[in-house]
Design a protein that fits this description.
Layout (H helix, E strand, L loop, with lengths): L5 H4 L12 H4 L1 H16 L3 H14 L3 H13 L4 H6 L12 H14 L8 H10 L2 H24 L18
């Protein structure tokens, strides 16, 4: 029988340390990402924007961005139930509108490009719900979050410290 020290059994594990501060070492690239975020948001429903940000971040295993966009969605009035169901949206489509499902499908197709091109049927479903300007902003938003995910995962940004409404969009801004 193994003896378990009960004083450490229920303690959280320590946080990992970030590897690199991209904002500090590549400020122009970082600022360009912020500008893309601002531009992509302007032409897109805020709920759709956050659902896309969360879903791509789940797929890319970006804990920092899942934390951030979940908190932003909750602060904007999104329900816990819809956020929780997002990871299993194919079995819980009834939580979302047809437009939101189309955006989520496109998010997955663009995020998982290693599976092949964005299928025509997915694109056609999205085009039924989004006009050309909205579609362009949606594609920009999906591209944006995939870029942020890759920055955050590679530089190992630490989740758990983001506060919605703070002036910093990302750490060390």
């Amino acid at each position: 029988m193994t003896n378990i020290d009960s004083s450490t059994e229920n303690e959280r594990l320590p946080e990992h340390l970030p590897r690199l501060n991209v904002a500090e070492h590549a400020p122009e690239a970082y600022k360009a990402m912020i500008r893309l975020a601002t531009a992509a948001k302007k032409g897109l429903d805020p709920v759709v924007f956050e659902l896309v940000q969360i879903r791509a971040s789940q797929i890319n295993h970006c804990a920092f961005c899942v934390d951030m966009h979940t908190k932003d969605a909750l602060a904007a009035g999104e329900s816990v139930e819809r956020i929780v169901q997002l990871s299993a949206w194919e079995e819980s489509k009834h939580f979302y509108t047809a437009k939101e499902i189309a955006a989520i499908e496109l998010t997955e197709a663009v995020t998982l490009l290693t599976d092949g091109f964005v299928p025509d049927d997915v694109y056609e479903r999205v085009a039924k719900h989004f006009d050309d300007a909205e579609m362009a902003h949606l594609i920009a938003a999906i591209t944006l979050i995939n870029g942020w995910n890759r920055i955050a995962v590679t530089s190992r940004l630490v989740p758990g410290h983001y506060t919605p409404g703070s002036t910093a969009h990302r750490p060390a801004e």
